[in-house]
């Protein structure tokens, strides 16, 4: 089955700096890669996703890149703000299978 | 309007008891899931139902029994609760085709004492 690794497990940046979180996946048939943000006491919420026919996608301060050959994808947050502090999860889904396999999460702390 | 709602939000119970968590989605999705999040924040799928049919059943003790009366509801019943069952349980839903996102509920924090 699919295995998703995520690094780093914790990340502390100063407000205004950029943050990068990286994930690798094992199943070359995976074709959908969402990123979720989980705030304290809440459920994960989708912030951006990318499909395997696209190499990069951007939405305001958030961007995701996908390298299918190397089987890795990354989340980039620019101009970080205190409200970006949360746990971020990457995930991968294979074909028409409905199962999302999640990475182990990254706790991002944005300090003033 | 809450898209995926689960009840209760908190559940504290003694070892050996039987408890249920309910989930409902109003998004018209055909697929629903239960995920377990442990104390280290690992999110692991337990079950998935598509149009009331079980399609994913990960290695979960058979004390856990999901039930889907219709495609908008997926409940989780747990028998003979153990200390290790303490976790946050998330319900989610998505559309099976088209690789669309999964929407998560707010979670149920289960504490077994």
Description:
The complex is a heterodimer of chains A (112) and B (113). Chain A is globular, with a radius of gyration of 13 Å. With 112 residues, chain A is an all-beta fold. Chain A has strands at 4-7, 10-14, 19-25, 30-38, 45-51, 56-59, 62-67, 72-77, 86-94, 100-102, 106-111. The model of chain A has no long low-confidence stretch (mean pLDDT 94). In chain A, strands 2, 4, 5, 9, 10 and 11 form a six-stranded mixed beta sheet that branches. Chain A has a five-stranded antiparallel beta sheet with strand order 1-3-8-7-6, with no helix packed on it. In chain A, β4 (30-38) and β5 (45-51) form a beta hairpin. Chain B is built from no helices and eleven strands. Chain B starts with a strand and ends with a strand. In chain B, the strands form two sheets. In chain B, strands 2, 4, 5, 6, 9, 10 and 11 form a seven-stranded mixed beta sheet that branches. In chain B, strands 1-3-8-7 form a four-stranded antiparallel beta sheet, with no helix packed on it. Helices cover 0% and strands 56% of the residues of chain B. Chain B has 113 residues and is an all-beta fold. The A-B interface holds A 31-32, 34, 36, 38, 41-46, 49, 51, 87, 89, 93, 96, 98-102, 104-105, 107 and B 4, 31, 33, 40-45, 48, 50, 55-56, 90, 92, 94, 96-97, 99, 101-107.
What are the salient characteristics of this protein?
heterodimer, A: 112 residues, mainly beta, six-stranded mixed β-sheet, five-stranded antiparallel β-sheet, B: 113 residues, seven-stranded mixed β-sheet, four-stranded antiparallel β-sheet, 0% helix, 56% strand, globular
